[in-house]
């Protein structure tokens, strides 16, 4: 009986030690850093895509008729700057 | 419990303002202009084979893993040359059998980009939550402050997109605090309207500042080549072969890795 208890105690200590070894915080940091590098590569790919115009575009505020000419000239200068 | 607490600010952010994106401005959002903020969902899905699942120097294990990377963004302009982006981003790696390699990150961030004579200068703040497993246990919380400069060069059918990025990470885990420098060159060679050859060689340098990692310095070299097919302007499939090697002044942190796999990129 005593021998079984000792075996169980040593087994529990062994499992705990293995878990502690696996829980090196540097491993979590390294895994996260690798995802960051992948994210950087993903950005290169997704930024080459052109998001389509769709209903999720928030509508601009309605402009009074008297200001429509000014608004139009502002927008054309914006597109010209890119 | 800790991970549940970590999700609260995420939900709060979503309900309060809701917007996000990744992060590095390699190309302007073509749907944006000064007065119209634009929502978008962009992402990447990439089942991949690796010959070093645990990126270990000595314990190399071949494995398949699945890595979705999804962002929700709000892009807009403050002036003609100054743009902003708010974003949320979810990304994880799930391995077929090596579950110890599973990892996930949730990010919330904001970015300001100034266009100056073709160059794009960005400052970025990112609040991030790193998990062991696929959103299983919260490992640490970090705040990244970044600055980057990027530009596109187009010559005939070739587009070159160099980017330099400097980051400091503040974190509740001492081992995660570090400086990081990235130099990336996005290359695209258009073969015809649908097909392209693409590559993204990069170099990274890390200077860890605290905890068990204090004094550690890593360098990462990566080269890849892929063939991309664009289904539409917002959906493409790329098959890639990638080689990556990390050197370090901590010998056990060195590794090399070969990865092969397709990736589906989308923007809506």
Protein model, in words:
The complex is a heterodimer of chains A (82) and B (268). With 82 residues, chain A is an all-alpha fold. Chain A is built from three helices and no strands. Chain A has helices spanning 2-22, 25-46, 68-80. Residues 15-21 and 68-82 of chain A have low confidence and may be disordered. By secondary structure, chain B is mostly beta strands. Chain B has one domain (2-267): Beta Barrel (Porin), CATH 2.40.160.40. Chain B has one helix and 14 strands, in the order αββββββββββββββ. Chain B has one helix at 2-16, and strands spanning 38-50, 63-77, 82-95, 103-116, 119-132, 137-150, 153-155, 158-171, 178-190, 195-199, 202-208, 217-232, 235-248, 255-267. In chain B, strands 1, 2, 3, 4, 5, 6, 7, 8, 9, 10, 11, 12, 13 and 14 form a 14-stranded antiparallel beta sheet that branches. The radius of gyration of chain B is 19 Å and the shape is globular. Residues 1-22 and 28-33 of chain B have low confidence and may be disordered. Chains A and B meet through helix 2 and helix 3 of A and strand 1, strand 2, strand 3, strand 4 and strand 9 of B.
Q: Tell me the radius of gyration of chain A.
A: 31 Å
User: Into how many domains do the coordinates of chain B divide?
Assistant: 1
Tell me the distance between the termini of chain B: 34 Å
Mean pLDDT across the residues of chain A is: 64
- CATH level 3 topology of chain B: Porin
Spans where pLDDT lies below 50 across 5 or more residues of chain B: 1-22, 28-33
The ordered string of helix (H) and strand (E) elements of chain B is HEEEEEEEEEEEEEE
Shape of chain A: elongated
Number of strands of chain A: 0
What is the multimeric organization of the chains shown?
A: heterodimer
CATH superfamily of chain B: monomeric porin ompg
Under the CATH scheme, which architecture of chain B would be assigned? Beta Barrel
> Main β-sheet of chain B: number of strands, strand sense, barrel status?
14 strands, antiparallel
Query: β content of chain B, as a range?
Result: over 45%
Derived from helix and strand composition plus strand pairing, the structural class of chain B reads mainly beta
β-strand percent of chain A reads: under 5%
């Amino acid at each position: 009986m005593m021998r079984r208890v000792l075996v169980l105690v040593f087994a529990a200590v062994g499992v705990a030690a293995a878990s502690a070894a696996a829980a090196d915080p540097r491993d979590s940091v390294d895994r996260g850093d690798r995802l960051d590098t992948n994210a950087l590569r993903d950005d290169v790919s997704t930024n080459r895509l052109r998001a389509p115009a769709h209903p999720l575009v928030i509508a601009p505020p309605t402009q009074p008729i008297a200001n429509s000419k000014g608004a139009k000239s502002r927008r054309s200068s914006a597109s010209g700057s890119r | 419990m800790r991970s549940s607490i970590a999700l609260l600010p995420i939900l709060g952010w979503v309900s309060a303002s809701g917007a996000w994106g990744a992060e590095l401005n390699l190309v302007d959002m073509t749907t944006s202009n000064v007065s119209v903020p634009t929502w978008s969902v962009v992402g990447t899905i990439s089942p991949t084979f690796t010959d070093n699942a645990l990126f270990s120097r000595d314990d190399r294990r071949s494995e398949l893993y699945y890595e979705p990377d999804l962002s929700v963004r709000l892009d807009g302009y403050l002036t003609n040359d100054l743009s902003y982006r708010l974003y949320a981003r979810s990304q994880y790696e799930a391995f077929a059998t090596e579950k110890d390699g599973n990892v996930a990150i949730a990010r919330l961030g904001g970015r300001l980009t100034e266009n100056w004579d073709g160059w794009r200068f960005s400052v970025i703040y990112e609040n991030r939550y790193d998990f062991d497993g696929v959103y299983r246990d919260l490992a640490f919380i970090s705040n990244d402050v970044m600055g980057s400069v990027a530009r596109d060069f187009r010559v005939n059918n070739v587009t070159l997109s160099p980017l330099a990025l400097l980051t400091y990470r503040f974190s509740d885990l001492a081992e995660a605090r570090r400086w990081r420098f990235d130099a990336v060159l996005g290359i695209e060679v258009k073969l015809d309207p649908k097909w392209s050859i693409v590559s993204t060689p990069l170099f990274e340098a890390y200077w860890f500042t605290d905890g068990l990692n204090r004094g550690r310095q890593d360098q990462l070299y990566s080269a890849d080549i892929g063939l991309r097919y664009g289904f539409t302007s917002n959906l493409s499939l790329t098959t890639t072969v990638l080689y990556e090697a990390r050197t370090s002044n901590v010998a056990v942190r060195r590794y090399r890795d070969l990865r092969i796999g397709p990736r589906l990129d989308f923007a809506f």
